[in-house]
Amino acid sequence: MTTTIKRTAAERVVVHRRKFDWSVAGRIVLLSLAAVLVLGPVLWTLSTSLRPPAESFQLPPSFLPLNPDFVSYGQVFKQLNIVGLVLNSALVTGLIAVGQMITAALAGYAFANLRFRGRNALFSIVLATMMVPAQVTIVPVFMLIRGVGLSDTLMALILPAIPTAFGTFLMRQYFLGLPADLAEAAAIDGASPWRTFRSVYAPLAMPGLSIVGILAFNFHWNEFFRPLIMTISEENFTLPLGLVSLQGNLGTGSISVVLAGVVLSMIPALVVFMFGQRALRDGLTAGTGK
Amino acid sequence: MPGSNGKLRDISRRTALGALGVGIVGATVASWPRLTGTDIPGRGDNSLSIAIMGTAADAAARQKVVDAFAKVHPEIKVKVQAIQAVDWKDFFTKILTMVAAGTPPDVVYVATEGAQLFAEKLAHPLDEYLRRDAEHMKEYFEDVHPSLVEAFMYKGSLFQLPIDWNAANMYYNTTALRQAGLERPADDWTHLDFRNTLAAMRKARPSDFTPYYWTNRLFGGVVPWLYANDTSFLKETKSGGGRWLWDSFYANDPTRGMRSGGYQWLEANATDPKVFESFDFLRGLVKDGLGVRPEEGGGNSLVGLFASNRIGTTPAGGYWVQGLSEAGMKQDDYDVQFFPKWRTQRHQFGTAGYAIMKTAKDKDAAWEWVKFSSSLEAMQIVFPTPNTTPARRSMVNEQLYAGKGPRHWKVFYDTLDRFPSTGPIPAPPQQAAVETALMKNVSLAVSGDERQLKSALESLQRDLEFALRRQP
Amino acid sequence: MSTASETRVRNKALRGNSTSGAGKPGRSGRERQPWLPWVFLAPTIVGMGIFTLLPIIASVALAFFRWDIISAPSFVGFDNFAEVVQDPTVRMSFLNTILFVVVAVALQLGLALGLAIMVQEKLPAWLRVFFRSAFFFPLILSAASVSIFMRYLFNEQFGVVNWLLSLVGIPAVPWLTTPGGSAAVVILVYVWQNFGFSFLLFIGGLASIPVETYEAASLDGATGWRKHVHVTLPLLSPTTLVASVMAIINALQVFDQPFVLTRGGPGDSTRTAVMVIFESAFQRLEFGQASAIGVILTLIIMAITAAQFRLSKRFVFYQ
């Protein structure tokens, strides 16, 4: 396979073998240092969440959760309706992700493979919307949502998030990366443009679509600002909002409980990450690597 | 790309995709009530909606009050909505958002921080109801200190009945005090005594310990030191009016003469020499390693730090007792004393109570809720544990603090009786802008040299003038 | 992993698009069904029209009014803009934002590129997978929760960071209570969480550089970092463009980290532009002023992005 070719080629690049070994060792040391800096805070969070509140500021810190104590996790469940929060977050992020995948696939395909008047101008406008901060549009969006009677509902979070500039951009790049002769062949077979899209291009674009889905999930699972403004009843809260309330008012929150909440909220995103990491990496290679 | 068995894979993939599609549509339809919020009980009906700051757990805790209320007023349907927020400012933002969304609550639990904002823009005065039910309300006012009530007067009208409150007293760690070779400080200890206490604690424990921990916020930050020094960062005046209330409910109170139609904070006062003096005192504590530089919006881990014996003293109120007890502190591990004396020993407090919104559909029903919530019965249901100080003097008793401490819990309510000029958190209707102006200049003011302090106070003065000029 | 030949096909497709327009079926489709592209575009275009463009227009209009949500709006002309540009806090916040973008993006891209090159060179496979996952990991956390635990780590008296520094004899750093310290923490925490995304983009870019190019370079005697300067960087420039445009757009809108870590303080030292928008809109109810600040910020973001694309014409090297 190509990877083997690549490896031998890479080995040939470096002529002096001994120097090469040194550089590998040096690189591993540097990379490990970076990995420690990246993972250390997370490990500390995990281990502190597993300690009783009175020991939360223990120094020297412990990074490994020996003698775990789950008191703080119990507290999280007592203080928050975790199941409800997770359900809301899952509903919101799931529907946004699916909605983004569908709309981005359609629009990306049109921008990549169909010709129409004003295509470039329209694409530039779509891209330009990425540059407008959410804080700028939130008030009019809020009034709009109020106008259609969806204030303080999950729909208020979902609907505005479905059209996606970034997803459209990614899918356009992805479709451009697919060979153009496929479409020619399909056209010769007499397939309609819609059929060409549905039967030829859409299945091939699945890796790209999964990136759109994963990124949408990741972003909206962790989203803080829009839910902060758009939802009021706690029945409609998503996970990040619930977490913040664990901090308590006037210093009455417990650090272990807060961190236990943080750890709990990581788990679903972690699962998606483990399953989606490969698709994400390969997809981004194809999507924006060029 | 499809391989040799591409066709088969294609079919199974199509089936899978189809199933996925059906699943998504099905899930969407099934969760439609959740998506549109129609499954929330009491939503859209005409029950009296009460907004409080807190979590689901807090709302559930109020359910007992709602049940008790239903026994007295079966005709009024009540729904308590807990609104989660990081701090009061955040909570008021949420209420304003509800107003903007066209779904304002009928009654809101508002703290001093927002009292004047609500009085100015959103709330309906209680005067007519108090006059009407004066006979019934006598018992409440007899049990509640007039200082608390005065904090909810605005331009001669009363907008809320205090339910709970807290003053900034001084908590101390008894072990740290003992290690420093000191006894419990006297009731009228001065700011210099306080400084000496910190220095002794520092000497006894040179590391992994902070003699004075404080946070940068409106309550318990720099303001108690300003009040103790007979000044504030805003010029404090009082408006006329309100005699009707003091004459009818506090006719026998010795402090009746000094009561007013409410506080007013109309001008900035950051360049007052006494303000400089107070800030300079705190700057000295920071410089000599006796106190921390305060973090902005910090203090969320304060209970944990204090409970792990890393803090010598910190300003806080009665709301801390329950948290410290849960964090494992025993009754003898800590105690509380009045805030130190300077030119005066005036304390700072914050209080909270229900306000009726102007937009409330049924204000009479709303008043019934406010009235019931101020009753002894309701307050005993709401405050089973010392996670705040009840506004009723009769409830701040041995029983409330039994087993949890502190030994001198009497300090909490005595603060009001001993120092009747004790005043509320300075919070004009432009509170958000004023608070931001103060917060952002405090850290700079206390963590540099004298020149930096001067320029920080000048900048505070400028920011406050700017904030007060704004439309509330 | 994509192969060199695949990459070339892709590049051909890309170039073909940029010069001669897209595939042919579209053209025939255009003759028979001119409405067809619009069916594909409808969900996105209608959605964006309603939820992005309309609000932008409304926001621009709102910038000329004084409005607090509770009472009716009143027209004030350019007053909001005049007040906003004179407000020292607003000016400071824009300055902070620019400084933040420069430092954070430079750090983010530099780290990401360096680590990506190190990971892509010869390394045991399991280590490569481990490092990749590790560097990407912070991205899956929410900025709000990251900021929550970082606050504890950077605590001046009891935080782990100062404890570690004390081990090597460095006295406690007042991280969150001095202007310099706060700015450093906000930047560090932001870069900590976000460099993984650029890292991933660079990994993708590196994978698509044909191996022959390196062979040619090594035959010419280029080794080590010289190889990277002369071969990798130019060939990676399209990726760098995408990565930097995205990093800059993101950094210009930074909110969660300073909001949770420092609340913009001490002073105005970590107040960013979008924080000022949030504060004036949702804490002070000055929606007109908030919109005015938003309009100015959006214009600045657009100008910067346009400048980047213009510069890229000169510096980005397409194979």
Q: What would your notes on this structure say?
A:
The complex is a heterotrimer of chains A (290), B (472) and C (319). In chain A, 72% of the residues lie in helices and 0% in strands. With 290 residues, chain A is mainly alpha-helical. Chain A has two domains: 2-71, no CATH class; 74-285, MetI-like (MetI-like fold, Orthogonal Bundle), CATH 1.10.3720.10. Chain A is globular and about 70 Å long. In chain B, the strands form four sheets. In chain B, strands 1, 2, 3, 4, 7, 14, 15 and 16 form an eight-stranded mixed sheet that branches. A four-stranded mixed sheet of chain B has the order 9-12-8-13. The model of chain B has no long low-confidence stretch (mean pLDDT 88). Chain C has helices at residues 4-20, 24-32, 36-62, 79-86, 88-120, 125-136, 143-153, 160-167, 179-207, 211-219, 224-252, 256-261, 273-283, 287-315; strands spanning 65-66, 74-75. A two-stranded antiparallel ribbon of chain C has the order 1-2. In chain C, strand 1 and strand 2 (74-75) form a beta hairpin. The radius of gyration of chain C is 24 Å and the shape is globular. The chains are: A mainly alpha (290), B alpha/beta (472), C mainly alpha (319). Chains in contact: A-B, A-C, B-C. At the A-C interface, helix 1, helix 2, helix 4, helix 5 and helix 6 of A face helix 1, helix 2, helix 3, helix 5 and helix 6 of C.
